[in-house]
Amino acid sequence: MPPPWPPAAPPPACARSLADLLVALSAARALPKGQQLHGHLLKAGHLPATASSHAPIAHHLLTFYARCALPGDSLRAFLDLPAPPSPAAWSSLISSFSQNGLPAAAFDAFRRMLAAGVPATDRNIPSAAKAVAAAEDSSRPPLAPHALHGLSAKTPFAGDVFVGSSVLDMYAKCGHLADARRLFDEMPERNVVSWSALICGYADAGMHSAAMEIFRLALEEAVPVNDFTVSCILRVCAAATLFELGAQVHARSIKTALNASPFVGSSLVSLYSKCGLVECAYQVFGEAPERNLGIWNAGLNASAQHGHTTAAFQRFMDMQNAGFRPNSITFLSLITACSHAGLVDEGKRYFTLMKEYRIEPQAEHYAAMVDLLGRVGRISEALGLIESMPMEPPEYVWGALLMACRMFKDADTAAIAAKRLFETGSRSSGAHMLLSSTYAAAGRHMDSALARKAMRDAGVRKETGLSWLEAAGEVHTFVSNCRRHPRSNEIYNALEKVGEKMEAAGYVADTSAVVKDVDKDEKQATVRYHSERLAIGLGLLIVPEGVPIRVMKNLRVCDDCHNAIKYLSKCTGRIVILRDNRRFHRFEDGVCSCGDFW
């Protein structure tokens, strides 16, 4: 005899058992077993849910698919719920979309929930805030962050620390840092999420001093910071190359056992790499008890930035053997490694390999390929690659081509690249100066002067070249021909003395990049005291013998300074580690680690 239709509802005890089983499968993310149970529930008539006893089953099924990263199946489970869906079901659906990279769907579900008369709660507001924060700037309604904050303020959960922290995090990730700070100051209670959100918001915006200040306040108030907080502050130290402060944060993370986190580990690898201590970066990577894709990418990028190309390729193989699937960051680091070594064929192979992993090359990958081709003088091929891009080339792609033109004195292509770069709306002083110096290097001083005049007429100011050196807990910053440092006389005297030894060893100043058409002596005086040389001069005075002199520079080191520092390392016996905006250079005994290829 056929079973009655519709089937009778399962006894309450049976429904609870099925719900408990789904909870267990959800926690284990056991997708095949969960799908088998789902099929059984459909065949047995327990779904779509028609009785109240069925509702918990459908609700737990929704959560199960969310945790298995299948938000579409979560939506189908939601539709199987008896109408009208409960507030908890709406919250689970919004969370499913938000946690699985569908911010637009999450926010749309939140709005449909409100339209259905279901109130906002302490469960769905954080999910909606996460969705707003994750949305692309172009697709996010401009007033969405403030609208959601206003809505949450009208609910009984306005003072809830979890709701407040989620709204604060949303403001920070949307770049509304003034609103984030105002909310932070007004919160009656704060937790580690509140502190971390503000610290990371400042860090992402490049407001390093503000991030450090909030971190200091958190420590003063004995906030139990977590691995996310420490990771953010380490990123600040890495971006500002604050090695000594970063080392202190590292020591603190060891005391609190947070250094075991792969998030902290990846930030530590980046810190030591960006501060020029790549061996320390490798040590942190090698000692990491747990590795995620982030720390693998950090280790690979460290090898790429320091010109350890073979190590980068080997790390990529090790990462794959460990079961990790490369992402777009992985391939960007690999192409960068090829660029720093001039390995065109290998770079093209990795660029092509991206599609095998179903990763579409983005503008930054094209920029890296342009840089690779440009460094070896294949400028026409680089220009052709740009013209073939499926998206509009952003300014940094044209900037990479312009840099190549400067290296090979290709003034005609430089003019094309500069024109296209300016058409993007860029007001970069670097592009104007690159064009001017390319003309100067090619002997076209009239065109060089016209390029500088065009920059002045456009109201663009030249970016100041800065170099800095950290020693004894203090950061010393220099600009070219600067005499503001309290030890300026000693610095200049030290450089003059070593300069005499350099000239005796065969050093001759290269003034080809000096944009002004002046006599030889004035050109030599122009390049002799560039900012990086002044920083190195101070290093000769205050950095102990046997300790590398580590200098950071915000612009590319010029050809003459690069050559001069090689001679300086030979004549003084000192190791100099210089990071410019292109790569790391380790000068030792008259040789640079870049092989004069940068």
UniProtKB/TrEMBL annotation:
Gene3D superfamilies: Tetratricopeptide repeat domain (1.25.40.10). The keyword Secreted does not apply. GO terms for biological process: cytidine to uridine editing. Residues 1-30 form the signal peptide. The keyword Repeat applies. Residues 506-598 form the DYW domain. PPR repeats lie at residues 86-120, 160-194, 292-326, 327-361. Keywords: Repeat, Signal, Transit peptide. GO terms for molecular function: RNA binding; zinc ion binding. This is DYW domain-containing protein. It comes from Oryza meridionalis. The lineage of its organism: Eukaryota, Viridiplantae, Streptophyta, Embryophyta, Tracheophyta.
